[in-house]
Amino acid sequence: MAQNWVVGLTGGIGSGKSLVTDCFSALGIDVIDADVIARQVVEPGSDGLARIASRFGDPVLHPDGTLNRQALREIVFHNPDQKQWLDALLHPLIRESMNSAIRASTSAYAVLAVPLLIENNLTAMADRVLVIDCPEDLQLKRAMQRDGSSEQTIRNIMQAQASRATRLAHADDIIDNSGTREATRHHVANLHTRYLSMASSAN
């Protein structure tokens, strides 16, 4: 029988969420990634893409029929009403897909990785909230190295996300990801043991 015990994993940009989700995957745990689902709900042939194309027309499509994210971002960035429409379309589709993936999960528990778990009020989807944490200057450095973005761009993204203090206030568990990869793997392994016990008790 599929289980529904869920760890909601979140953290700011550059905090190292991917390293942690990779560790859980390596331990045999199903990871449901909101970023992956957000791309799936606007793939060619999806209802999401059809409705976006119907509203915004050809400018938001590449010649191959895929979504031109940059063109769409430019439109909604300058028009709050359009952004509100887009959010109202996509957020329920993403949430529905996440719920389906949770129901389909066959591992002892599932990890729901959502960068904006707290900002979008999705903590109720999880039994535990796990925050991946590191100092903000390290977030900035990592994100700039990874994305090749300017310092100001990364700072703007950080500003738009929940503050570090807010994330930590919502946390049931915290992984300090400012040390070595091995230290993080060790921390995940310890949490995994606890989560197996908790999920077993819940079921």
Protein model, in words:
With about 200 residues, this protein is an alpha/beta fold. It has a single domain (about 5-200), classed as 3-Layer(aba) Sandwich (Rossmann fold), CATH 3.40.50. The protein is built from 9 helices and 5 strands. The protein has a 5-stranded parallel sheet with strand order 2-3-1-4-5, with helices on both faces. α1 crosses α9 (about 180-200) and α6 (about 135-145) packs across α7 (about 150-160). Its main location: cytoplasm.
What is the strand tally?
A: 5
> How far apart are the first and last residues' alpha carbons, in Å?
10 Å
Biggest β-sheet description: 5 strands, parallel
Report strand order across the widest sheet: 2-3-1-4-5
Strand content: 5-15%
Helix tally equals 9
The topology string of helices and strands comes to EHEHHHHEEHHHEH
The domain count comes to: 1
Question: SS-based structural class?
Answer: alpha/beta
CATH architecture: 3-Layer(aba) Sandwich
